[in-house]
Specification:
By secondary structure, this protein is α/β, with parallel strands linked by helices. The protein has helices spanning about 50-60, 75-90, 105-115, 130-135, 155-165, 185-195, 220, 250-255, 265-275, 280-285, 285-300, 325-330, 355-370, 375-380, and strands at about 35, 95-100, 120-125, 140-145, 170-175, 200, 225-230, 245, 305-310, 315-320, 335, 345-350. Strands 2-8-7-6-5-3-4 form a 7-stranded mixed sheet, sandwiched between helices. A 3-stranded antiparallel sheet has the order 9-10-12. α6 links the parallel β5 (about 170-175) and β6.
Length: about 400
């Protein structure tokens, strides 16, 4: 047996910050199974033309590996501005765009600049579980406010929670992960008017949404609104790790104060710019994914599952007496989906038609074994305690079930 230096030291032995003790790291299982539907990636691989263009761009950039990259990624940000202008109908320039290694780094930089000790961030749960993790990492107090019983965002309750607790930062996810619903612009306007600080609209799944992008609100609300996006989902560039935001130029100036120097490698910048040249081709798969989503949702409902309406590339479905055990039953049959920590519910990414068929086949088998109870969503959602309690969010299911099941 190989001896590992320092193995006798445990996490408990380290002088870890108290707000990090007892927490679980974020992550989804990465397992070799026939059907992987747990991380909401675009299931369509890049075209050969895109692969060739990325390879050429990276090869050319490699000649400059002995030099630091463009520290502010100006050319890439300009390309992103052109893309988002065309996608949203809102005129944006390089001065409105910032980019980083995935949208999580974008969110972290925002809280480094606008959160921190003595400041707070509010989110409407269940939602993206990295938001409270990033809050913890930046020592920003996390204030969870709950969604309506059907997982939609009750804008009156949201405004009331903001008014009562006056958070410095508000997270709004649209479409929401893991529940799938989008938020109308008028509801976002109400939240922006109520918020005393900034509002981050997390549009990681924005290309799938039936609602307009919040980018159209930048001119109306100025530096109060930030729109976070990623190339990891609809763009089929998850392996490239590129996230970006759109905001007023002053916001980009603020993030320059906290970003690490040369944070985007020359290879990342080159690959992302090449991928952006194929945006029309890549995003051509969005309609097909949405059609498959609707097919899968209808089939699950026919099998007796409770299905939450989705405006994204995944479906949240439930009626399970024991969601972690049901997750394991899917895995035992070669299908990896996601236990997102909502009692009675699981989430499945929309894959290729054959992958979706395999998922539905297992869903039918499990329905026959233990017919799911078509319980109304309202009875499965967590009650809405006053945010004033400031209770920490529930630990991920990973800490309650098998240790390799980290949740989103």
């Amino acid at each position: 047996m190989t001896t590992v230096p320092g193995r006798s030291v445990t996490l408990d032995d380290l002088p870890l910050r108290e707000n990090l003790r007892g927490k679980s790291p974020y992550g989804a299982p990465q397992l070799q199974v026939p059907v992987v539907l747990n991380t909401n990636e675009n299931p369509h691989p890049p075209s050969q033309a895109l692969i060739d263009d990325v390879a050429k761009a990276v090869t050319a950039a490699s000649a400059e590996l002995h030099r630091y990259p463009d520290r502010d990624a100006v050319a890439l940000r300009s390309d992103l501005a052109d893309y988002l202008t065309a996608a949203t109908g809102t005129e944006l320039t390089v001065d409105n765009i910032w980019a980083a290694n995935g949208s999580n780094e974008i969110l972290q930089q925002i809280l480094q600049a606008f959160g921190g000790p003595g400041r707070s961030a509010m989110g409407f749960v269940p939602s993206y579980s990295m938001h409270p993790i990033i809050a913890d990492g930046t020592q920003t107090e996390w204030l969870p406010a709950h969604r309506a019983d059907d997982f939609s965002l009750d804008v009156e309750q949201a405004v009331a929670a903001i008014t009562e607790h006056q958070p410095d930062v508000v997270f709004v996810t649209s479409p929401n992960n893991p529940t799938g619903g989008s938020i109308p612009l008028d509801d976002l306007r109400a939240i922006l008017r109520a918020a005393p600080g900034i509002v981050i609209v997390d549009e990681a799944y924005g290309e799938f949404s039936s609602q307009p992008s919040a980018a159209v609100l930048i001119d109306e609300f100025g530096a109060k609104v930030i729109v976070s996006r990623t190339m990891s989902k609809a763009f089929a560039f998850a392996g490239g790790r590129l996230g970006y935001l759109a905001a007023a130029p002053a916001m980009i100036d603020a993030l320059l104060l906290v970003r690490l120097p040369y944070h985007l490698s020359v290879l990342t910048q080159a690959a992302a710019r090449a991928a952006l040249q194929h945006s029309a081709e890549t995003l051509g798969n969005v309609a097909a994914i949405a059609a498959e989503r609707d097919r899968v949702a209808a089939a699950l409902a026919e099998l007796g599952y409770t299905v939450t309406p989705s405006d994204s590339n995944f479906v949240l479905f439930g009626g399970f007496a024991d969601a972690p055990a049901s997750w394991q039953q899917y895995l035992d049959r070669g299908v990896l989906i996601r236990d997102v920590g909502i009692p009675g519910f699981l989430r499945a990414t929309i894959g290729l038609p054959a992958e979706n068929d395999a998922f539905l086949k297992v869903s039918a088998e499990l329905a026959d074994l233990a017919r799911p109870t078509p319980t109304p969503v309202a009875s499965l959602a967590r009650p809405t305690p006053p945010v004033a309690s400031l209770a920490r969010p529930e630990p991920p299911v990973a800490s309650l079930a098998r240790p390799d099941r980290k949740q989103q």
